[in-house]
Amino acid sequence: MSSAVPLDALRDTHAPRVEPLDVERVRQDFPILQRKIRGKPLVYLDNAASSQRPRVVIEAIRKLYEQDYANIHRGVHTLSQVATEAYENSRDKVRQFIGAADRREIVFTRGTTESINLVANSFARPRLQPGDEILITAMEHHANIVPWQLVCEQTGARLRVAPISDEGILRMEEFARLLTPRTRLVAAVHVSNALGTINPIRRMIELAHAGGIPILIDGAQAAPHLRVNVQQLDCDFYAFSGHKMCGPTGIGVLYGKLAHLEAMPPWQGGGDMINVVTFEKTTYNDPPQRFEAGTPNIEGGIALAPAIDYLLGLGMDRIAAWENELLAYATQCAADIPGLRIIGTAPCKASVLSFVLDCAHPHDIGTILDQEGIAIRTGHHCAQPVMQRFNVPATARASFSFYNTREEVDALFRGLRKVLEVFG
Fold it and tell me: What pTM was estimated for this model as a whole?
């Protein structure tokens, strides 16, 4: 039996109408989308793993290496000053993109994973004692599970997990019940990479703060698809990655409320995170430099700015509207595939269609689709507890971006019919 979400359930009927994207024009901005795989047009539906890059991002990196590259900060020569200005301007761009109050609240990291590890080691670990608790949800990515397990092992704290329903919806009554006087931190995903579920983050933050509990949001899957304003959310920390939002690999962001960052000790030691070093004592720099030891991913930081400009130029509301249309259309198409079961049928989702077929393992599905030039992700998606919750070894995951088309969705389901021909 196929399992599908009703079309109307995937649309926000109260959202204002926005001018539609000219998707064919947008696609011209992405050189890789002109590529052929095995003689067939590339259909790239692996955006939850990593998006593709528009030409403006590629050109920004090329320009840096050809004209402006030097190490940043403290250099008095022209190239160093030019690169430093571009890097720090990118920090301001990120601040504006997520609505942070102060540029000092924007820490550059290697990605969401390092951002979460930074909070785990610098914020949580010094505050935890035996018997304390950290609360996460059952739909977390490994990057928002393992760091908390590590600090719990080191401190004697306990990891608690709020359950999810058969539809992949967080059980809010259980989440609220698990917030106790022993809870020292909540860490929760904004949008599930394995299910597509959009969590009620604002309500979760309100519940945590009612108990005086700080909360970190894993925004890796939300920042590319949704409008995010950290001041309106009032979260304590928000983490996301550049490579999922048309930016370079190896650059990420940790937003932290300034009061938290100022109270946190450094996690890594080295250059740039210091004020004065002697063999007897070292004093540390202010945030965010306190948490940015060593030579950073300079080109990644600089090219993140044009990626953000590109997304904002298209409009986050327009992006979300088109991706919702694609998801709704794909969900309709899925209902016509015998033996297909969608994993994650929450009414509020973002651009992820995870599924299993009765007749074929997800890896076989992905292999046959690749023969048709169609790129999806198969496996546990770094969310093994989610797979265990739904009693499946893995899923096939098609994830959509604003440059995808209905024709590409059609190609996906033509490919799945070929899978049925082989295995059915």
Answer: 0.95
What is the domain class of 58-312 according to CATH? alpha beta
For the chain, residues classed under CATH 3.40.640.10 are: 58-312
pLDDT for 16 = 56
Of 235, 246, 333, 382, the active-site residue reads: 382
The answer to whether 246 is a known catalytic residue is no
The arithmetic mean of pLDDT across residues 46-55, rounded, is: 98
136's CB contacts (< 8 A; 6+ apart) are 144, 145, 148, 159, 160, 161, 162, 186, 187, 188
* C-beta separation of 326 from 43 below 8 A: no
16 to 192, 193, 317: CA distances (angstroms): 25, 26, 9
For 212-266, write each residue's pLDDT tens digit.
999 999 999 999 999 999 999 999 999 999 999 999 999 999 999 999 999 999 9
- How many residues are present in the chain? 424
Question: What per-residue confidence (pLDDT) applies to 11?
Answer: 40
Non-local CB neighbours of 298 within 8 Å, separated by 6+ positions = 64, 69, 71, 72, 83, 87
Task: Please write the tens of the pLDDT for every residue from 313-327.
Answer: 999 999 999 999 999
Residue range(s) of every CATH 3.90.1150.10 domain in the chain: 7-34+315-423
What fold is seen in the domain 7-34+315-423? Aspartate Aminotransferase, domain 1 (3.90.1150)
Q: How far apart are the first and last CA of the chain?
A: 14
Amino acid occupying residue 260:
H
Q: Is the peptide bond before 54 cis (omega within 30 degrees of 0)?
A: no
| Residue 2 scores a pLDDT above 60 | no
